[in-house]
């Protein structure tokens, strides 16, 4: 598990390898990740959007951005957390993801970014 705190918001990420399959004559490696967003600040905040960079060992980079996470824009009061699970496909058995969430502080009405720490994706059969 990797963790990072930015502006009182703690991001924790756990990953797992889901399996591999062929699509359009290419092998794909499926990875799942579970993110917990914990509000350790004294203010209520809302997650509005996300930005991801997905890297694989073959130097392929993909960026993904959009509103909320899995269709939600969670509001977190102090001490509350939100956990969700998602996934990605890579064309190699190794990779990594990183990014940030765009959030708003309801007390100050200021928008801010919360870093998503870099986490590794690796198929267990490919690890030395």
From TrEMBL:
<dbReference type="InterPro" id="IPR007474">
    <property type="entry name" value="ApaG_domain"/>
</dbReference>
<dbReference type="Pfam" id="PF04379">
    <property type="entry name" value="DUF525"/>
</dbReference>
<protein>
    <submittedName>
        <fullName>Co2+/Mg2+ efflux protein ApaG</fullName>
    </submittedName>
</protein>
<feature type="domain" description="ApaG">
    <location>
        <begin position="3"/>
        <end position="128"/>
    </location>
</feature>
<dbReference type="InterPro" id="IPR036767">
    <property type="entry name" value="ApaG_sf"/>
</dbReference>
């Amino acid at each position: 598990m990797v963790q990072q705190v930015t502006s009182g918001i703690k991001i924790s990420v756990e990953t797992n390898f889901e399996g591999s399959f062929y699509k359009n004559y290419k092998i794909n490696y499926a990875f799942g990740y579970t993110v917990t967003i914990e509000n350790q600040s004294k203010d209520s905040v809302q997650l509005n959007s996300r930005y991801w960079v997905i890297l694989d060992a073959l130097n392929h980079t993909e960026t993904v951005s959009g509103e909320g996470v899995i269709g939600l824009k969670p509001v977190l009061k102090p001490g509350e957390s939100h956990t969700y699970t998602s996934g990605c496909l890579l064309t190699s058995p190794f990779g990594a993801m990183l990014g940030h969430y765009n959030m708003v502080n309801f007390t100050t009405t200021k928008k801010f970014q919360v870093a998503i720490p870099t986490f590794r994706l690796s198929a267990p059969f490919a690890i030395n």
